[in-house]
Amino acid sequence: MSPAGGLAANPSPGLALDIPSTAGQAIHEKFQIFGTKYRWILLVCMLSGSMATMLAATAINVALPAIIGAFGLAQDQAQWMSTAFLAASTIAMLANAWAVSAFGARATYLAALVVFLAGSVLGTVSPSYGLLILSRAMQGVAAGLLQPMSMLMIFQTFPDRLRGRAIGIFSIGVVLAPAFGPALGGYAVDLASWRLVFIATLPIALLALPMAALLMPGRDGEKAAKRPPLDLPGLLLIALTILPLLSFIANGDRDGWGSDISLIRIGLVSVSATVFIWWELRHPFPALNLRVFQQPQFACAGVVIAFVGTAIYGSTYLIPIFVQMAQGYSPTAAGVMMIPAGLAMVIGFPLAGQLTDMVDFRLLLAFGVIAFGTSVYLLAGVTSDTPYWSLVGWIVLSRVGISFCMPPANTTAIRAVPPELLPAATGAASFLMQIGGSLGVTCLAVILQRRMVFHGDHLASGMTEANSELLYWHQQFVMEATSAGVPLREAFTQAFRPISEQLAQEALVYAFRDSFYVCAVGFAALLLFVAFIPRPATPHG
């Protein structure tokens, strides 16, 4: 190994260690201490932190039925457990570049882990649903800070010849986390309580904490003087756009779509969005550089990226709830169901990424959209008796579809922009993915709730004295109750209870079917959109 002394004056040690030219002095100092193995142990550290937050993102979904029961929630309220995480991470992502430049990677990473740990503990002990939402938002802020930083560190520590391998290893870990998150959450619920889900990923985060303190580089003094200012108005404006919009959608039925509070929310969204666009187009260092959307290829691929966000987070939200509430599976069984789908993505992602350089990306997108659309169309025909392995197969097909949408869409979007807009394009792509997930989960939860009410009312309207089937089953339940010693008058009243429960169960199944059908229609429309995307332009640079 080259001697540590004189590294700043003599570039030969850096060349010997194969350190990228983009690395700062703080990274050079870490290589002096650890040698060439530094980049690999740093990768383990970054993967630990990212996996902790990604596991937390999806582990909560299988616990939602238990949380709904504990707090007496409706679907349009329960969805905030997922939406708060996604919305907070979306906003935090936009502040990541500034935080790293202002405070350094180590301080930012450690702060994010501490926020994640605090949010996890708060969720475990929260006595109210409001504090649960706050805890999920804290976890989301941590995820938003950690995810982009990991990719930045890979580009600054791995040379070009090793970068693909490092990104591949990191991507596999990030993809596996959502696959095993529901299984981890289900096991925690069955083992103890839904509260255990919040701290189930703490061991991984606690492992990453001392590793980050030791391995993450500090702030480069010469670069700190050049750091761009924080676009705080831009961040506030995007928050004042996203949060009232999600609240308007989620609470529209409850408050009334034309009520004063709903009109105030949508008015705030309109004003904030308009001012945000005006501000970001004029700010020298915008939180979200809207100029990337002037590239038609980026804008078209961005639509697909937003739909993929809806597909990933929306399906991960609906499926575990359906198999528990409509089919009576345990949380563990609901979580384990998602593992084969995650493994399919591990295989599909590298394959789709490789094909992106060989095949017209529109063909890959069309295949992916058709695969996912077919899967949700099949799910739109589910019943309470649909076999477990049929559901697993359809979910695997959905993940194959996502695998052939996500890499081509991201690669095509980023290739479309000039080199000077590359950092802005990667941030905008991540933003679209998260905002698509937030809006998708919120809309699907509202659709589910509305269709439950609709089908419940429709089924109940047919329960009259003219319904011979109702009379038959009511008589059967009365006979069962009286034979068990229940007085006739009481048995007559009690006999309506199982009928009412059966109607509610049927309404629930129909509502899930409608929600999946909406997804299928959305992806059918996306397929038409893909067909009209212009031929890919020659990549910049």
List keywords for this structure.
single chain; 541 residues; mainly alpha; Growth Hormone, Chain: A; 3 domains; 24 helices; 78% helix; disordered N terminus
Compact overview of the structure:
The protein has 541 residues and is mainly α. It is 78% helix and 0% strand.
Beta-strand fraction estimate: under 5%
Q: What class do helices, strands and sheet pairing give?
A: mainly alpha
CATH homologous group name of the largest domain: MFS general substrate transporter like domains
Q: Which fold name is given in CATH as the topology of the largest domain?
A: Growth Hormone, Chain: A
Could you explain how this protein is built, in words?
The chain has 541 residues and is mostly helical. It folds into 3 domains: 22-218, Growth Hormone, Chain: A; 232-282; 288-541, MFS general substrate transporter like domains (Growth Hormone, Chain: A). It is 78% helix and 0% strand. The protein has 24 helices and no strands. Residues 1-13 have low confidence and may be disordered.
